[in-house]
Amino acid sequence: MKQYTVAILGATGAVGTQMIQCLAEQDFPVGELRLLASARSAGKQVETPFGTVTIAEAGPDAFAGCDIVLGAVEDDLARELLPHAVEAGAVVVDNSHAFRLDPDVPLVVPEINAEDVSWHHGIISNPNCATIIGLVPTWPLHKIAGVTRMIVSTYQAASGAGAPGMAELEAQIGAMGRGEDLPEPKTFAAPLVSNLIPQIGGFKYEGYTSEEMKLQNEGRKIMHLPELRVNCTCVRVPVLRSHSESITLEFERDITLKQAREALAAAPGVKLVDDREAASAHDRFPMPIDTSDQDLIWVGRLRRDISNPEAARGITFWCCGDQIRKGAATNAVQIAKLLTE
Questions:
Q1: pLDDT score at 311
Q2: CA–CA dist 109, 303 (Å, integer)
Q3: Which residues are catalytic?
Q4: Reading across the β-sheet that carries 4-9, which strands appear in turn?
Q5: In the 8-state DSSP scheme, what is residue 120?
Q6: Spatial contact of 232 and 154, defined as CB atoms under 8 Å apart
Q7: Do residues 87 and 329 lie in contact, with contact meaning Cβ atoms separated by under 8 Å?
């Protein structure tokens, strides 16, 4: 089997660190692993499943000889550095928002539109975490009845803000437990412990935030549904990792709950957890505590949308998925594997 030289740009962050683990878990044919980060991390050694790797400073000349580059940095750095990776002959799978809506860049969830990888021009974008978690279970239902509208509320964990977000929540939990004043928030707009923050991203359009618009704009591109309508509210919640979403779908054709359950139970990347009679809550519905540190999107609370005047054309469900894994690192490595097949 061919071996690949793989670089991770942003290797010391929460997503970059998870990418290393995902490469090993998915048996990716890594011949050489390069870890790229800021100057302050350069020179440090990291033990990986592929041997000890010395972190190199990220820069325009860091990509020579790379076959695949996994990007896990902010938008500005992605725009600055990743074109140099393409010029050096690498194919980039980028986790930032920098290229997602570029018409010349595929935006891919392998369970939905793996074939779009074939028309890349050097860069393939990884979608937003909440988009991935919401669309993986929406897709099998769309194939039955044709989704036209989504009403979504997201309950997004601190991990969506990376390692600093998780550290800030943990520090606040510790301070509250000790009866101390909460440390001043730096990552979030307000303290997250014992709180909900109904804003993720800046306000962009008609009072909707940038995070809320991603599900519509990215969903249209991934599912090839340019007329898809999405109403989304994104909320940051005091959960360490694993996002949750409440989703109501409206369809152009009738769909029964039996059809929906069967489709979700058989769908790749999905685990149906929907036993209302189960003795344990862990078997009745998905929860972040159960869905962290794994790659499936768990789906439950499946029911009719009783507000839809066309009763047979509305389905509501609840889903949870690990934001760092399937919402970011796992999906990126799955895309990279498509390049090797």
A1: 84
A2: 26
A3: 129, 243
A4: 56-57, 30-37, 4-9, 68-71, 91-94, 123-125
A5: -
A6: yes
A7: no
What angle do the packed helices 257-266 and 129-145 form, to 10 degrees?
A: 130
- Give CA angle at 43 (10, 70), nearest 5°: 20
pLDDT on residue 1: 81
Per-residue b/e over 299-330, b at no fewer than 16 CB within 10 Å? bbbbbbbeebeeeebbbbbbbbbbbbbbbbbb
**Residue written as tokens 């670089």?**
7
Q: Looking at residue 161, what DSSP letter applies?
A: G
Contact between residue 261 and residue 274 where contact means Cβ atoms under 8 Å apart: yes
From the DSSP assignment, how many helices (H) and strands (E) are in the chain? 10, 16
Q: Which pLDDT score is estimated for 151?
A: 98
Helix (H, G, I), strand (E, B) or coil at 193: coil
Query: Comparing C-alpha atoms, which of 116, 88, 84 is closest to residue 100?
Result: 116
Q: Are strands 147-156 and 203-205 parallel, antiparallel or unpaired?
A: unpaired
Structure tokens at 276: 């209302």
Contact in structure between 125 and 222 (CB atoms under 8 Å): no
DSSP state of 267: S
SS3 162: helix
Closest by CA to 290, choosing from 234, 236, 241, is 241
Q: Which amino acid is at 122?
A: G
Quick one: CA torsion of 49, 340, 100, 57, rounded to 10 degrees? 40
Give the model confidence (pLDDT) of 93-112 as tens digits: 999 999 999 999 999 999 99
Residue type, 200: I
84 membership: H or E segment, kind and range: helix 75-87
Low-confidence stretches of the chain (pLDDT < 70) are none
Q: Rounded to whole angstroms, how far apart are CA atoms 58 and 65?
A: 14
- DSSP calls for 196-222: -B---S-EEETTEEHHHHHHHHHHHHH
- The DSSP bridge pattern shows strands 314-321 and 208-209 to be unpaired
